[in-house]
Fold this sequence. Notes:
The protein is of the alpha/beta class. About 45% of the residues lie in helices and about 20% in strands. It is built from 12 helices and 13 strands. The strands form 3 sheets. Strands 3-2-1-4-8 form a 5-stranded mixed sheet. It is globular. The protein starts with 11 loop residues before the first helix and ends with a helix. Mean pLDDT is about 85; it is low at about 1-10, about 10-30 and about 375-379.
Amino acid sequence: MTPDNAARTPTRAERRPSRVPDVERRPAFTRGLAIGVDIGGTRVKAGVVTPDGEVLERAERATPTHSPEATEDAIVDIVADLRSRHRVRSVGVGAAGFVDETRSTVLFAPHLAWRREPLRARLVERTRLRVVVENDANAAAWAEYRYGAARGEESVVMVTLGTGIGGGIVRDGLLERGRHGMAGEFGHMTLVPDGRRCQCGDRGCWEQYAGGSALASAACEIAASGTPIAGALVDAVDGDVALLNGRVVSHCAEAGDPASAGLIRDVGTWLGIGLANLAAALDPSILVVGGGVSAAGELLMGPARSTFTHSLTGRGFRPEPLVVVAQLGNDAGFIGAADLARTSPRRAEVRAEALRRRRSAAPARADRAELRHRGHRAR
Length: 379
């Protein structure tokens, strides 16, 4: 019998190093709270977000659009307010515009005054926090992929219906931003050559037919015409047609107003056409529709799905992507921005590793191509 204090050979289980829980192995910045800010064309929405996507507190302001300085002040103010009650490590800003590949500068924002605005540098200087700037629709797409309707999917396309139309693409766990950071500007695809003038300067953009401003414009037009069928819309704003917006139209449609329901069906039809174009180009496994206009629910999505199915290239001979409504609602933009601010170094490492693997595989692909070419010549 071996004495208690005698040396013994450890078992295999004892030799195996104990597994450190993932939460302990993560860098500290991925475990803390982050503030996400979503800068839309009309509202600034923000929230304090945990690593699990839980929103601890929300805040909201009107978006000052007349100057870059005013918009920046609104961001700093809302961050300071939330930060006064929570210990945060980073800030993510989802901006409604073209954000450069370094996630630092807003190059152009159709609905705001930003033109080559060095937003990240200004916010870092004023908040003294770690800041990441991302396109607002990219941030929303990331949130739905991480915590919402697209969780577990490998190929995700999201379309956001707000004042205009934005979009985001997630493939294999990575946010696809394009070479210059401007991928996903779906709202400015030309659907109608020489069509309605868009705020971007072009004509016939998709968002002029399926975005929130398109719904509001159509409602104003029908109400201003004096037709009796617009009575419910006019009554909803006490006769001030200028107050009509997508939310008012949705409420009237839900209350049974046929004119409002017809306007939403028209927007849904244009939505379905654009979604079919995106499916033909990108072949995702799921298309997620979010943003304020999506709150119209099946009034919008019914016509959209029907038109999508009838417009999809190769219909009947190809898998059809799911078309679903986003789960995170108006919180998606700031939830995604917060998560990207917390995890962007980690995502950058993943992207760098994926790029390294693609480059290392390139010679092998070239060799296989040469072998196929030689075989073809031999035949």
